[in-house]
């Protein structure tokens, strides 16, 4: 009977049950606060605090073990910590799986809905042109922010050559990258969450429908098709709202598990680079503030309303996983037209990521150059910025994908053989990935809001409410 509980339920000790009871109590407390009318932003902030306290308490009671959390499975004394990690991971994976289940339907039906309902006075090329420009320019500025901070803080100087399990990703030629954007099998593209592929296929269907709608005999069928797409999209968004309502509870587990997975030793050993990335994120968000001000919008309103979505991105480490909540926030809280919200938010999960392809690749490249003792000239800075923008094309919005963007930049600099020197910062990648993802999502929302404002379709009453 004991082995059954250990192997099937992953419960071998009273300490495991105490950890799960503590989590259940936190969930109950959050539920009570929510029912009492406490604002969503405050509940999310409390979720972060509870997550930190829970994670720290678990490590403290286990005397801050130095072993990898997975290696504790066969430990006699520390197995309860592993079991708590497994249960926490179960909750996280289940929640993220539900979100991922919604990503492709939201993009597919959302993009089609965007095009077939597009105001005839607003051209598609205007939406794409404005949003693309915002995403590229903000990514370039974010990269420059990362480069500047890394040079000032001299990160990487004196780094000892270390080995790492992370390997450089193969960088494909431009022609192959472009061909990869066009899916040869839409089912495969959907199954592999190929966002750009699904976007392109959705555009083909929508444009085809619009062409057919110009003929009188197709108008009735087109209206039926449009109403069907609208209704399916509403169903998907209703499901999305229900899934997102569980976010405060999942945030607690996500934060706690971040501590369990990485411990405090890894955090302390690369503290300077962690600090750099978080400062870079703050400066990038400041740049987003400037964009809002230039568009005559109140940045305080933006951050107040965007906070729950940014916390979701921070804890989930997935721009794509946050997409349903991003679109919902843009339309319901900021008054962005559903067409711009769906389209711009979708492409921002794979193009122009301010965090992953912006300040992260810029600062990491300088880290490597400093480690090699290379004199960083203006030519290097310009090359890193250009490569960062190029690297932002087609990277999926999933946890850890920034390594792909970093690989592109390092290979472009001809430093791929020195990738092992980045072992220190790669070891704490999940901690950095959290703030990277939040910045990515903010950049996408800013681009969507600014695009909508530029096209004069933004509801200022909703934005300022």
Key terms for this structure?
single chain, 465 residues, mainly alpha, 0% strand, membrane, symporter activity, transport
Please render the helix and strand layout as text.
Layout: H1 2-7, H2 14-35, H3 40-61, H4 79-116, H5 124-153, H6 174-181, H7 186-191, H8 195-213, H9 219-244, H10 247-262, H11 265-269, H12 271-294, H13 299-316, H14 319-332, H15 338-347, H16 355-371, H17 378-391, H18 402-412, H19 423-427, H20 429-454, H21 460-464
Helix pairs in contact: 2-3, 2-4, 2-10, 3-10, 3-13, 4-8, 4-9, 4-10, 4-14, 4-15, 5-12, 5-16, 5-17, 5-20, 10-13, 12-16, 12-20, 13-14, 13-20, 14-15, 14-20, 15-20, 16-17, 16-18, 16-20, 17-18
Organism: Campylobacter sputorum subsp. sputorum
Membrane topology: Multi-pass membrane protein
Main location: membrane
Describe the structure.
This protein is mostly helical and 465 residues long. The chain has a domain at 122-194 and 264-464: Orthogonal Bundle (Proton glutamate symport protein). Helix content is 74%, strand content 0%. Helix 16 (355-371) runs antiparallel to helix 17 (378-391). The radius of gyration is 23 Å and the shape is globular.
The average pLDDT is: 82
Strand content: under 5%
Number of helices: 21
Give the CATH H-level superfamily of the domain at 122-194 and 264-464.
Sodium:dicarboxylate symporter
Specify the CATH architecture of the domain at 122-194 and 264-464.
Answer: Orthogonal Bundle
Shape: globular
CATH topology of the domain at 122-194 and 264-464: Proton glutamate symport protein
Please give the number of β-strands.
Answer: 0
Structural class: mainly alpha
Question: How many strands, which pairing sense, and closed or not: the largest β-sheet?
Answer: none
CATH class of the domain at 122-194 and 264-464: Mainly Alpha
Query: In terms of per-residue confidence, which ranges show pLDDT below 50 for 5 or more consecutive residues?
Result: 160-170
Q: How large, in whole angstroms, is the Cα Rg? A: 23 Å
Distance, first to last CA: 58 Å
Oligomer: single chain
GO molecular function: L-cystine transmembrane transporter activity; symporter activity
Keywords: Membrane, Transmembrane, Transmembrane helix, Transport
Protein name: Sodium:dicarboxylate family transmembrane symporter
Subcellular location: Membrane
């Amino acid at each position: 009977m004991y082995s059954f509980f250990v192997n099937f339920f992953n419960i071998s000790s009273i300490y495991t049950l105490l950890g799960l009871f503590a989590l259940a109590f936190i969930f109950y407390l959050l539920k009570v606060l929510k029912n009492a009318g406490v604002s969503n932003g405050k509940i999310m902030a409390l979720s972060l605090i509870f997550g930190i306290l829970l994670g720290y308490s678990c490590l403290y009671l286990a005397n801050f073990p130095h072993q990898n959390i997975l290696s504790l499975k066969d430990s006699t004394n520390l197995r309860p910590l592993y079991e708590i990690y497994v249960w926490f991971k179960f909750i996280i994976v289940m929640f993220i799986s539900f979100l991922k289940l919604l990503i492709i339907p939201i993009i597919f039906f959302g993009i089609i809905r965007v095009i077939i309902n597009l105001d005839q006075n607003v051209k598609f090329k205007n939406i794409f042109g404005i949003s693309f420009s915002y995403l590229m320019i903000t990514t370039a500025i974010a990269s420059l922010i990362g480069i500047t901070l890394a040079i000032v803080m001299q990160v990487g100087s004196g780094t000892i050559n270390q080995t790492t399990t992370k390997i450089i990703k193969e960088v494909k030629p431009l022609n192959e990258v472009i061909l990869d954007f066009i899916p040869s099998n839409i089912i495969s593209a959907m199954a592999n969450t190929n966002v750009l592929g699904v976007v392109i296929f959705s555009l083909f269907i929508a444009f085809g429908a619009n062409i057919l709608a110009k003929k009188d005999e197709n108008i009735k069928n087109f209206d039926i098709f449009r109403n069907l797409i609208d209704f399916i999209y509403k169903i998907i968004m209703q499901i999305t709202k229900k899934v997102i309502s569980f976010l405060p509870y999942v945030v607690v587990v996500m934060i706690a598990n971040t501590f369990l997975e990485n411990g405090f030793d890894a955090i302390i050993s690369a503290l300077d680079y962690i600090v750099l990335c978080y400062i870079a994120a703050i400066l990038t968000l400041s740049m987003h503030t400037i964009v809002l001000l230039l568009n005559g919008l109140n940045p305080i309103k933006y951050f107040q309303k965007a906070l729950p979505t940014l916390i979701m991105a921070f804890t989930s480490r997935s721009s794509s996983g946050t997409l349903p909540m991003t679109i919902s926030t843009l339309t319901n809280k900021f008054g962005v037209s559903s067409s711009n919200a769906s389209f711009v938010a979708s492409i921002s999960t794979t193009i122009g990521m301010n965090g992953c392809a912006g300040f992260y690749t810029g600062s990491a490249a300088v880290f490597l150059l400093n480690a090699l003792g290379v004199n960083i000239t203006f030519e290097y800075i310009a090359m890193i910025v250009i490569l960062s923008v190029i690297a932002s094309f087609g990277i999926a919005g999933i946890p850890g994908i920034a390594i792909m963007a970093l690989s592109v930049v390092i290979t472009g600099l001809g430093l791929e053989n020195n990738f092992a020197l980045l072992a220190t910062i790669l070891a704490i990648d999940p901690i950095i990935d959290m703030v990277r993802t939040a910045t990515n999502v903010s950049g996408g929302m800013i681009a969507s809001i600014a695009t909508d404002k530029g096209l004069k379709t933004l509801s200022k009453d909703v934005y300022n409410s």
